Amino acid sequence: MKKFKRAIRYSLKPHEMGLCGPLCLKNSKKILYEYLIGKKVPLKEVKGLLEDFCGAVSYYSLIAEKNGIKDKYDDKVIEAYWLGNDLLKKVKQEDIKKMIFSRFVGPDKLTPEKAEKLAKKIPKDVYAHHTFHVFF
């Protein structure tokens, strides 16, 4: 499906660099690339791999929820996170703080203390954008 391809196009390069995406599946890059170039890959497998992009999927979910969009892989949601658009205006600082505590705390993630320290530094006029996630 087109919506998954756009999400993969943006996230595959960081994944190839080991910066995001599934850590445990060695052939995930190959599977995602094959799907992009049109090879037959089960959609269920592709969606499962995309769900392991914890950072991006967390933001997709938040942006979709705050804009009343049911599908977190909606084209406008993906665009908002990676490129920016008007959907970002509805996601507030407090929403991002809550997401950090609900999605980024746990084993192999942030400790509650680190999450608290991070959350306190989030600027009031923040956008739920990829650059925020990378640089902050």
Describe this entry's structure for a reader.
With 136 residues, this protein is mainly alpha-helical. The chain is 59% helix and 0% strand. The chain is built from eight helices and no strands. It is globular and about 45 Å long.
Write the SSE topology:
Layout: H1 2-16, H2 28-36, H3 43-51, H4 54-66, H5 75-82, H6 93-103, H7 112-120, H8 130-135
Helix pairs in contact: 1-2, 4-5, 4-6, 6-7
Write a concise synopsis of the structure shown.
This protein has 136 residues and is an all-alpha fold. The protein contains eight helices and no strands.
Strand runs, count: 0
- Radius of gyration (Å): 15 Å
Helix-strand string: HHHHHHHH
Kindly report the average pLDDT value: 89
**End-to-end C-alpha gap:** 32 Å
3D shape: globular
Helix content: 55-70%
Structural class: mainly alpha
Portion of residues in beta strands equals under 5%
Poorly predicted spans:
none
Give the number of helices. 8
Task: Summarize the biggest pleated sheet.
Answer: none
